[in-house]
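If your schedule permits, I should be very grateful for your opinion on a structural question. I would ask you to consider whether the tokens describe a fold that such a sequence might reasonably adopt. Thank you for your consideration; the sequence and its tokens are set out here.
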Amino acid sequence: MIALGTYNTLEILRDTSVGLFLGDGEGNDILLPNKYVPESYEIGDSLTVFCYLDHSERPVATNLEPEILVNEFQLLKVVEVNDFGAFLDWGLEKHLLVPFREQRNKMQEGNWYIVYCYLDPQSNRLVASNKIDRFLSNDTLSVKENDVVELVISRQTDLGYEVIINNSHKGLVYFNEVFKKIAIGDNTKGVIKRIRPDNKIDVSLQPLGEKILEPAANKIFNQLIAHGGYLGLHDKSDPELIKDELQMSKKTFKKGIGTLYRARKIQIKSDGIYAIEGTVN
């Protein structure tokens, strides 16, 4: 079976005047147009290609890499609005349609939106929706506390940032636990910090508990070396200075320099921290 909206590894079946026909070994084939044909190939070779419908609604393959796959969320830009809906630039020749029925509010050309890509069962076309909540559910969770997960930053709220977890669930990162610059649409990793009785999920953008000590210590030490063995930060420094310089909380910073101090890698003085001679490779 050749799946639309994702990558397929297919066999080169035959060479024609319009391009290569690729097959899945089950009697299904698809055209890879000439402009995407590799410079060298042999019949029988395997190619990994993205498959979707072209402007004539015919299945076609490409070696271009789209910015979103089927059943994924991503931040994309509207490049055209017409009588059919809004069209998104997703890195392919044919833009991705968001029908009017799938727009939370009327989309505007030039604006960016978090959308979900799916295969419309009625038309068999790939379309997108920015009514993203209906594609997420916390009723039955596939994650547990302390799991490392993939996140998409989806929305800013009064409490923090809503995140999409593993393309399946909704979670929240609180403002006071954000120690690096993030923006809507960012893809990043996180950790499931807490699952509440109502299945609401609190997420951390950094490792939890003792797991944070070694990465924090390494980050501080690397920054120390990058600054010639001295950082003007110490355990009395303003938390905002620490956050701006190292993208971590003051609590994490203090634990990190404690680890470095016990390992005899740094000296802590009133004006900052210094790398101990001989600890720099």
About this structure: Residues 210-275 form a domain with the Arc Repressor Mutant, subunit A fold (CATH 1.10.10.10). The chain is about 10% helix and 40% strand.
